[in-house]
Amino acid sequence: MSRQALGKGLDALLKQTQEILGTTPPAEGKTVQKIPLENIVPNRYQPRRNFNEDSLKELAESIKQHGLTQPIVVMYDGGLDKYEIVVGERRFRASKLAGLKEIDAVVQKGLGDKELSALALIENIQREDLNPIEVALGYKNLMQKFLVSQSDLAEYCGKSRAAVSNSLRLLELPKEAQAAIETGLISEGHGRALLAVPDLKKREILFAKFKTGRLSVRQAEAAAREIMSLKNPAKPEGRPPEVLEFESGLQKALGTKVEVKYGAKMSKGVLVIYYNTLDQLENIAERLKTQMF
Question: Is 89 a known active-site residue?
């Protein structure tokens, strides 16, 4: 598939997404109808893996008192003889909790797997309903399905290129650390601090400290810088404080290890910026561009 064709496909899907999510007027002929809840199944590409029970109960009580303020969007699946949710699974679940037997819905036609996946992700991003790992997995899923770059995806989802790159990098963390972010044991900021430590063993030690230490993100970043400074204990002592300060500041700004190698008089030297993956390299380049321009 050509890059031009991909672009057209994204443009078309973006327009369709805006219409379905209600940011533009719906197309003519789309009417709201009552559909039994028992005839509806969840979106198979729903990026949300956790639904807050207390939040659902609050929404259910609101639906009992005031009704459903916005219909869900579904599509008919002939193979299942069911309606599959396109957007609105949280409203669907809350309506079941509220004891409703049917729900207001708009039936959307002409959607494929890619559209279902994209719509589910974008709806949740717009509503800020996803945890950081769910967002990252959603981005990864869309990139694989559309075969587009991070830059295209960022533009499509209304995010900066650096934001998408930083989100995807969370998937480089071990599963235990990802699970900790999902459950809120540590934050996305703690995850980025872990990623700033290239040495996997050092990263494990730091993660253990995060789990038990209740560190703020700023404290976590400081702990990451401290553990990185112990990377090569055989180095001679007495590095000038201005060099250490420079390395520390640049490491924080770029989110990776930085090392200044200099000669006897420090008039010449080499600045080394370390990276582990191509995505991390792209993220570093994006941060440098942001600082320069």
Answer: yes
Determine which helix (DSSP H) or strand (DSSP E) holds 87, and give its type and residue range: strand 82-87
Asked if 39 contacts 83 with a C-beta cutoff of 8 angstroms, the reply is yes
Contact 174, 32 (CB under 8 A): no
pLDDT tens-digit series, residues 208-227: 889 887 788 899 888 888 88
- Tell me the pLDDT tens digit for each residue of 150-178: 887 787 677 788 888 899 999 999 999 99
**pTM of the predicted model as reported, rounded to 2 decimal places:** 0.55
With beta carbons less than 8 A apart as the criterion, state whether 37 and 92 touch. Answer: yes
Q: Under CATH, to which class is 168-292 assigned?
A: mainly alpha
Class assignment of domain 3-128? alpha beta
173 backbone dihedrals φ, ψ, rounded to 5°: -70, 155
Which residue of the set 89, 115, 134, 282 is catalytic? 89
